[in-house]
Specification:
Order of helices and strands: EHHEEEEEEH
Distance between the termini: 20 Å
Strand content: 15-25%
Number of domains: 2
CATH superfamily of the largest domain: Pleckstrin-homology domain (PH domain)/Phosphotyrosine-binding domain (PTB)
Number of strands: 7
Oligomer: single chain
Number of helices: 3
CATH architecture of the largest domain: Roll
CATH topology of the largest domain: PH-domain like
Helix content: 25-40%
CATH class of the largest domain: Mainly Beta
Shape: elongated
């Protein structure tokens, strides 16, 4: 079984999520006193709301750490930022990683391309090794009879 995840984007996302929570927490803690020339004043709930917004923003950023590709003798399971799919080797024509493409994709026999966001060009050599591993599994199992 081969399991692949992006590397660089995970580090960037976790660092960004922590920075966002810290920033919004500091902003929330500094909300005190009048709101300006008017009659309004900041309340304790306003500070908590800012922290909550920081947490929601951090969770949104962490969605980009979700992509994963798992492959075994049965086929490939791909989980992208939004959505996932499972494909048996019999429907896959090949594994593509075109020059200039942001990520690899699976080429299907019906000429569809299914993106694999977990294999990103930003990861350079680890992404290339992941594509090679998928291609080896594909060569091994694509022509084998299915276990139906």
């Amino acid at each position: 079984m081969v399991t692949l995840r992006p590397r660089r984007i995970r580090v960037v996302c976790w660092a960004s999520a922590v920075a966002l929570i810290v920033t919004f927490s500091l902003i929330g803690a500094s909300l005190q006193g009048p709101t300006g020339d008017g009659y309004g004043t900041f309340q304790r709930g306003d500070g908590f709301a800012m922290v909550g917004l920081g947490v929601l923003g951090a969770l949104a950023i962490l969605l980009f750490t979700r992509p994963r590709v798992q492959a075994d003798a049965w086929g490939v399971r791909v989980r992208n930022i939004v959505g996932s799919y499972e494909l048996p080797w019999e429907v896959i024509r090949g594994v593509r990683f075109d020059r200039g493409a942001p990520w690899a994709s699976l080429e299907l026999h019906d000429d569809d391309l299914m993106p694999m966001v977990a294999l990103q060009a930003a990861d350079k050599e680890s992404a290339v090794e992941g594509v090679r591993a998928l291609r080896r599994l594909h060569q091994t199992h694509a022509s084998a009879p299915s276990r139906s």
